[in-house]
Amino acid sequence: MNDPVPIYMLVIVGALMMGAYRVVYGRAARLVMPDVSGPVSTRAQPRHHARLAAALTGLIGVGVYLAGLSLRGPTPSASLDGLWLLACVAIPMLPMALSIRNVRPDFAARTHIERMAETGLMLLALVALLTTVGIVASLVFEATLFFQDVSILEFLFGTHWSPQTAIRAGESGQSGAFGAVPVFAGTFLITLIAMAVAGPIGLMVAIYLSEYASPRTRGIAKPVIEVLAGIPTVVYGFFALISVGPAIRDAAAWMGADVATQSSLAAGLVMGVMIIPLVSSLSDDVIRAVPQSLRDGSTALGATKSETLIRVVFRSALPGIIGAFLLAISRAIGETMIVVMAAGRAANLSANPFDAVTTVTVQIVALLTGDQVFDSPRTLAAFALGLVLFVITLLLNIGALAVVNRYRTRFE
Amino acid sequence: MSVDKDTRRGLFANPAVEARMRKRRGAERRFRAYGRAAVAFSIAALAWLLISIVSTGASAFTQHWVTLDLNLAPKDTDTIPNDRRRLADALAQAFDVPSNEETRRELLQIISASAATADIRQRHDEAMAIKITVPTSDLADQFLKGHIDPALPQGQRPITDRQISWIAILDAEGRINRRFNRGLFGNPDSRDPERAGLASAIFGSAMIILIAGALALPVGIGAAIYLDSFAPQTGWGGRLTRFLEVNINNLAAVPSIVFGLLGLAVFINFFGLQRSIPLVGGLVLALRMFPTIVIASRAALRVVPDSLTDSALSLGASPMQAVFNHRVPLAAPGMLTGSIIGMAQALGETAPLLMIGMVAFVTSVPSSPMDPATALPVQIFLWSGSAEAAWAERTSAAITVLLAILMIINGAAIIWRERLQRRRKL
């Protein structure tokens, strides 16, 4: 009985619902569907009456339960819990009694229950809105706290990032180093490398598989490449760490250069491989949407297949391909595990792909893992970075969706 | 030789055209080769990834165990401080070497000292001859599996010459045997690689996914049905519908780490739930899964022909009856498969779980959603941070387990869909 969230009360509510269903069903079977030979004017079947009764009972019951939970809080209290249990049993009796009284042939139970169901479904759809509002509100709220300590201009344009030292010296955020430019630069560099891999390769995969490959090759290669999209990112991160990073280091050593295992090149390359299926499946869709008549026209004028593809198909599909690339960039910017594991944590302002760099996501992880208090500028900085990340990816996504949608209607 | 060609090409047969055509055909061939190379690169990358991980991890599925006959000294807190020391002394006696600090350290490095000490602690405190069977240490295990080259000079390998000779003695006496590594699945996490297992991670992941699925599946499918069949299409309501649709598409593309930040701010900082518990992980992943499930379910609903709903409506069914009795059952296989694939994706999510503190070192198997736990991908991340070769092997094995689970879930979803669809058609 010392349950912080007494589930047994919900079980009681469930039992009440079932009781309401059975009682009302039995009554409606007698009253609503009379065994008459004349014209019958029933407006609902017994099951509709019963469902309405159960739904009302359950709704009120869960409402009482949640009200009790929010009044009492998570700590059990002997005196209040009895009262609460009583309320959970007694109050749902009222809608049950009402439903029993309402069992009449002219009561439109079906209309009522369907209206309730539709409202319920609408509320479920609004969860999406709630999530977005939750994301924006929590990020803005915590970031505002951060910007009370650190000026927004210093954060966006400062070139020195070392949140750790600010804590160690026991200083306030104002004298700490929260200039995020090196972090943004690292994100940009890795995204660039990833897109340099995923862009051309993903596009060529899409073109080859949709235009050149035999159905057999396509049937094998397409699902195999799709597997790349299903592999968890932590696996890619480990792959970059134990295979790709050392391979790059060894290759560099062979050419006489000294390179660390953790480099933006390793992270970027592996991330590029991860994004290939995203680029190729999105590009595949837009390439297929180009009408056959355009290709036929080009072929009739004597163009070879590749000429048709490059000069006609690619050009008409360009908006869609740009949309696909924007989505891929947004994915690369938000990717976390690969960079956390393979790109290092040093905030270098460097364009050299063999250096370790840091990214927005790496810094969020670095700032928030481990034990710490939750309102130091250090942890709040993570939310400021998160806000930047959210805004940038949101803009990229909206841009991409707008471009893709406009393109989709172009040939219809 | 050129007569035939000239006849065939007729008017266009002149050297300039020939040269241009050669160039254009070359370009065509090159273009096609680029395409083939791109496909080959992608497949090769996948193959490299799978091979490197499976080949590193395969040996972690077996483990070397050693059976030792030891004469334990009596427990006496004055001269012999603890069970660890008793164990080391007994080992020194067994190998007939003098027991000094250096020897004891080296001896304890070849067997799983913590497992053996725990074993001794359960037995009596008196002097006695005991027989214990314990895992070898990660060092000895790696050596026995051939991952350490004994030809290297002593300073360049982690194992000493003496340790190699002891292992050789044990091996010659038939005391070492290699068996299936049950601990990998049965043990919780540990600081010693030879005792670390995935039990708490697997249980944690299972609880997280069950909670997330129980929340996100009904809500996501309900939302998809609403947007597909009931949402207003005109006026202000229509605008709200379109806004919701854009919103869901955007949510699906929001980086998962942002969902972790949301969970941290809302569930932990605002609602005051504990960190590291599967309940919070499930809530966060439910939010992460929700847009994926809505999109997959809507795609499945969209392909059901409208004529079915229309004929139901024309026969007097209410909109609710038409949708739930005719439209939804036909879309159900697709909706479920899409949702299950979305859930499998969530199973591999790591970043949001890091945000809500599921990186704790958990040495017990969680028994309720309110106990601290870890998750399979997070366990992989934690293990990958340790430098020893034994950890790399374990991490790869954990990844193999994760990939196998994902493959089974996805495969089952696809087979299930095929079955349900076939039954519908009949």
Quickly list its features.
heterodimer, A: 412 residues, mainly alpha, MetI-like fold, 2 domains, two-stranded antiparallel ribbon, 16 helices, 2 strands, 75% helix, 1% strand, extended, B: 426 residues, three-stranded antiparallel β-sheet, 17 helices, 3 strands
Instruction: Please give the share of residues in helix of chain B.
Output: 55-70%
Biggest sheet details of chain A: 2 strands, antiparallel
Helical residue percent of chain A?
over 70%
CATH fold assignment of the largest domain in chain B: MetI-like fold
Name the CATH superfamily assignment of the largest domain in chain A: MetI-like
Profile the largest sheet of chain B.
Answer: 3 strands, antiparallel
Q: At the first level of CATH, what is the class of the largest domain in chain A?
A: Mainly Alpha
Summed up, the helix count of chain A is: 16
Averaged pLDDT of chain B: 84
Structural class of the secondary structure composition of chain B?
mainly alpha
Separation, N- and C-terminal Cα atoms of chain B: 64 Å
Cα-atom Rg of chain B, whole angstroms? 32 Å
Number of domains of chain B: 2
Using a beta-carbon cutoff below 8 angstroms, give the protein chain pair with the largest interface and the number of residues from each chain: A-B, 88 and 85 residues
- What is the averaged pLDDT score of chain A? 84
Provide the CATH architecture of the largest domain in chain B. Answer: Orthogonal Bundle
Strand order of the largest sheet of chain A: 1-2
Terminal CA distance of chain A reads 64 Å
Strand composition percent of chain B = 5-15%
The beta-strand count of chain B equals 3
